[in-house]
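Weekly sync, protein design subgroup
Attendees: M.S., D.O., the rotation student, P.L. (late)

Item 1: inverse folding check
M.S. brought a backbone from last month's batch and wanted to see whether the design step gives back something sensible before we order anything. D.O. pointed out we never logged the input encoding, so this time it goes straight into the notes. Structure tokens as presented (284 positions):
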């Protein structure tokens, strides 16, 4: 896993404005799939301004704007929310609902992967991903709520708080999304995912009991906090690449990719927050 939004990782709108830009010097690492090794848009393929020009979007129509990103993100997240509410209301907690949640999660993952490897955004794929992701989250949230009353609501508030805090920190300039920052963060994220995959296998084969690193105790809480911090890291990459896409006048259709990336990141944070709320509720 390279990012919570693999589409953005592959594109990587970037600039070097002396503050938070990625390197503009070409490096061999980019050819091996490292989008942060160079600035793939150093020559700004979407406009006429040169590398040294201020990062301003071209005054042409059909370019991505912040309004486009907000509208597409609201539509995508709204689809997730509607799917979650319908699943919560129409699917009571049962063995059948568990199966439906698993199936919806698999479909959402497949649709997300297909979109991730497409060169162009597909609104149908993105909204389909959002709908099935919503069904998965709705069933999972109902299961958590049946055992820890109010956990989903607290997780939503926690997700909003993390997102708002990350945005404020990013806009204040306390975090500089540089090539080094991205490389270190992605290395940590990949290591985290690999460790979680090994832990899952150990639990499945009965080697690790009670969830292993994902237990409902203090160790599980520490792992959950690390996962949420990684989610905040993914958000800073989302913000940076949205900012650069707008600055370089990316096509309006790219706003769907912004919505897709943000949705994936927020889902990550919500699921981890849901687990964290349950762990702390157990210890009350």
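Designed sequence read out in the meeting:
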């Amino acid at each position: 896993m390279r990012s919570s939004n693999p589409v953005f990782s592959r594109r990587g709108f970037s600039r070097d404005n002396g503050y938070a830009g990625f390197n503009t010097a070409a490096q061999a690492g980019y050819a091996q799939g490292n989008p942060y090794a160079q600035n793939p848009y150093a020559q700004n393929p979407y406009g006429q301004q040169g590398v040294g020009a201020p990062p301003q979007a071209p005054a042409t129509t059909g370019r991505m704007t912040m309004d486009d990103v907000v509208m597409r993100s609201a539509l995508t997240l709204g689809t997730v929310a509607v799917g979650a509410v319908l699943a919560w209301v129409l699917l009571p907690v049962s063995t059948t609902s568990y199966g439906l949640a698993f199936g919806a999660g698999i479909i959402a993952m497949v649709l997300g992967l297909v979109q991730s490897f497409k060169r162009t955004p597909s609104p149908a794929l993105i909204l389909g991903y959002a709908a099935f992701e919503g069904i998965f989250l709705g069933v999972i949230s109902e299961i958590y709520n049946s055992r820890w009353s109010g956990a989903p609501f607290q997780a939503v508030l926690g997700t909003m708080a993390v997102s708002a805090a990350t945005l404020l920190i990013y806009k204040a300039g306390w975090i500089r999304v540089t090539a080094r920052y991205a490389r270190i963060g992605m290395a940590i994220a990949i290591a985290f995912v690999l460790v979680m995959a090994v832990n899952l296998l150990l639990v499945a084969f009965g080697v690790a009991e009670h969830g292993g690193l994902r237990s409902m105790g203090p160790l599980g809480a520490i792992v959950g906090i690390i996962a949420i911090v990684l989610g905040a890291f993914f958000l800073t990459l989302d913000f940076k690449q949205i900012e650069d896409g707008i600055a370089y006048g990316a096509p309006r259709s790219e706003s769907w990719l912004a919505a897709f990336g943000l949705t994936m990141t927020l889902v990550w944070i919500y699921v981890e927050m849901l687990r964290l709320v349950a762990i702390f509720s157990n210890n009350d």
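Discussion: The longest helix spans residues 218-247. The CA atoms of residues 168 and 174 lie 9 Å apart.
Action: P.L. to compare against the previous round before Friday.
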